Give the backbone structure.
Amino acid sequence: MERYPTKQIHVGGVAVGGGAPISVQSMTFSRTADVAETVEQIKRLHFAGCDIVRVAVPEEEDARALKEIKERSPLPIVADIHFNYRLALIAAEVVDCIRINPGNIGSKKRIREVVKACKERSIPIRIGINAGSLEREIEGRYGATAEAMVQSALYHIRLLEDLDFTDIKVSMKASDVPRTVEAYRKLRPLVPYPFHLGVTEAGTLFHGTIKSAIGIGSLLLDGIGDTLRVSLTGELEKEVEVGRAILKDAGVAREGLNIISCPTCGRIEADLVKAVAEVEERTRHIKTPLTVSVMGCAVNAIGEAKHADVAIAYGKGSGLIMVEGEVVAKLPEEELVDRFLHEVEKMARKRSSGK
Ligand code: SF4
């Protein structure tokens, strides 16, 4: 699918927009002033595959902690600031991006100071519109609608453009999917800036994953979106895991295994649930894009296996291993997963070396 062309900005070493790979972001939930805990969480996110991390900066002690956090962080850092331009000025000296809405800073002079600080270090500003905190005048006119979110975004964007600042990315998040998707779709043709996608306060792992998959997934399928964050209550690595899975399943990132497994039914011939869980666990490290299938009986297994790079087709007490549609082994059930994983590793090496 074609992606909307957008301006490219850089958050540290990560390009956002302009055809760059869609990056996955997350946010720490430690008190930012607690440097040790914040760095620990950033490292966990890095290990999970996060590209950019955001930290909250509500107080001056948080802003002052950013220098050390930045020095110890393996990821580019976005400082999340509301209203307080002084915190933005402290943060802008060290971080890779500021999230602040210029219309909330106060006087023109203050906005100019923040813009100047960002220009001096060539760091972008993320405008983050949230349906729960729209400008009173805009909400009074449009209600808390998608149109109001668009008007709010345009208002903040113009404030920056008036100061000749265009290293901008934009997010427009509501806690429900339809408004979020509508807002992004409406704004997309109106501005050239990259979009940060997300459904805010999406909820627990279960509901947050569903909301994010529908909301972010719909936009990605429209070719909209340059970076994303999945918001999940009390989760850290899972936000990244779900974000990466959405990119993969929306077909915009080819990375790691696409595992096709049957839902199981009364024809099942083996403990498929256990086998799929083991396959998923033992292939997490593989980044080469491969399609594999693990099917519980002969009914659909051969058909799926023909389109898979590596497949297991279970039968009664035994099963087939297939590679690129060809049967390479018939083995007892207890030997199938190990042989399957051996073939997957072999295929991943072959593909990554380009043979
Ligand atoms: S592959 Fe076999 S066991 Fe699995 S759902 Fe289909 S018919 Fe049932």
